[in-house]
């Protein structure tokens, strides 16, 4: 409120604020709009963006594994191992996230050959559980085929770099012999 005065004002300053860090607004990322009104008439609109400025991911990896397969019905790895042969059917990179918050997150798996060359990458979306909701767990997995595919001919120490929302969050190592 700008107080009334008989002398009038040449100018006045008015402001408002929204606490972000440590408050609920920090979890509501995206574009925000402020409507500025004077005596009930809109005079301007201001726009700003709240980004996830956190250096760490909001997702917590509770468990991870490399495996021969995945039981997709119950979301668990089958035959955990880090040693594969050229006759192994596939290598699965599997993650179990705990206390999964919103918003939607993306997880990228980058399979790197022994010389560091990108062999394959895939991105999996972790859906938004909803406003003020979090899931107790969520799994994500992807794989590369080995037997009968080019990977069977690339022996040595491989890596899977796992990125959550573009940030390197985990490195898994395995061998193909």
Task: Summarize the structure in words.
By secondary structure, the chain is mostly beta strands. It has a domain of 117 residues: Macroglobulin (MG2) domain (Immunoglobulin-like, Sandwich), CATH 2.60.40. Helices cover 0% and strands 54% of the residues. A hairpin with a 2-residue loop joins β1 and β2. The model has no long low-confidence stretch (mean pLDDT 86).
Name some characteristics of this structure.
Immunoglobulin-like; 177 residues; mainly beta; single chain
Write the layout of secondary structure elements.
Layout: E1 30-38, E2 41-50, E3 60-71, E4 76-80, E5 83-84, E6 90-100, E7 105-112, E8 118-126, E9 135-145, E10 156-164, E11 167-176
Parallel strand pairs: 5-11
Antiparallel strand pairs: 1-2, 3-4, 3-6, 6-9, 7-8, 7-10, 10-11
The side-by-side strand order for the widest beta sheet comes to 5-11-10-7-8
Separation, N- and C-terminal Cα atoms: 74 Å
Percentage of residues assigned to helices: under 10%
Oligomeric status: single chain
What profile does the largest beta sheet have?
A: 5 strands, mixed
Work out the number of β strands: 11
CATH fold group of the domain at 60-176: Immunoglobulin-like
What CATH architecture of the domain at 60-176 would you give? Answer: Sandwich
Alpha-carbon Rg, integer: 25 Å
- Residue windows where pLDDT falls under 50 for at least 5 positions: none
Shape: elongated
Instruction: Summarize the helix and strand pattern as letters.
Output: EEEEEEEEEEE
Arithmetic mean pLDDT: 86
Quote the beta fraction.
over 45%
CATH superfamily membership of the domain at 60-176: Macroglobulin (MG2) domain
The CATH class of the domain at 60-176, by name, is Mainly Beta
